[in-house]
Amino acid sequence: MKSGAPRRLVLLGPPGSGKGTQAARLSLELGIPAISTGDILRAQQEADTLHGGELRRYLDRGELVPDSLVIDIIRHRLQDPDTKNGFILDGFPRNGGQGEALDSMLEELRRRIEAAIYLAIAAPALVERLRHRIAVEQRSDDRPEVVAHRIDVYLAQTTPLIEYYRRDGRLLEIAAEQAPDVVYGSILKALAG
Ligand code: AMP
Q: Per residue in 130-178, pLDDT tens?
């Protein structure tokens, strides 16, 4: 990977498109942290008996938690020293408001999201992957009725971000239906420009 390659990255794509898998590999290869708001929220839900129940209501239904909560999580996380040389955001931003909040918080730190990696995949392939994942990971929001809703939430709220990043040339669109290794290769190629 060239030294000038983008290192402040966002991963976009529907549930089941492979964001977590690709984020982990990129994190290892580039030596920068992968930050998943879903993982952070699941951990908070487990740890916080007071507010955990409140969080669980959103997570179990596949609804987005309030913007203010996730924006605060990211604002704090991006102040950690390990993000200095870059980071990969997995699952944030999730709507236009979060995208704008991210750009303005980074502007204050004189930083910028350099690339949004969009894992493009059609709905039937997603449902199949998530069916597999519920068997392996036993995530409560991978139940079929919640999966359908999470895909709807993605289509209604998250897809506008594709245009948001495309407009100013930051979008890298990756065909994500192939095997994880192939998709990873495409991402590296796109990042190398
Ligand atoms: P994920 O692991 O990214 O699929 O996220 C799991 C769940 O966490 C989502 O269905 C939401 O309930 C919540 N979540 C994760 N990221 C966000 C976000 N950026 N904004 C709001 N809710 C989020």
A: 888 877 887 888 888 898 899 999 999 999 999 999 999 999 999 999 9
Query: How far is the CA of 77 from the CAs of 19, 66, 106, in angstroms?
Result: 19, 17, 12
> How far apart are alpha carbons 25 and 154 in whole angstroms?
24
**DSSP per-residue letters across 27-92:** HHHHT--EEEHHHHHHHHHHH-TTTHHHHHHHHHHTPPPPHHHHHHHHHHHTTSGGGTT-EEEES-
- DSSP state string for 141-183: GGSHHHHHHHHHHIIIIITHHHHHHHHTT-EEEEE-SS-HHHH
Instruction: Return d(Cα 170, Cα 163) in angstroms, integer.
Output: 10
* Number of the ligand 1 atom closest to the C-alpha atom of 98: 19
Distance, CA 4 to ligand 1 centroid (Å)? 31
pLDDT value of residue 48: 77
Lining residues, ligand 1, CB within 6 Å: 15, 37-38, 41, 58-59, 62-65, 70, 91-92, 94, 98, 141, 150
Global model pTM greater than 0.90: yes
- Asked whether residue 3 carries a pLDDT value surpassing 80, the answer given is no
Three-state DSSP state, 113: coil
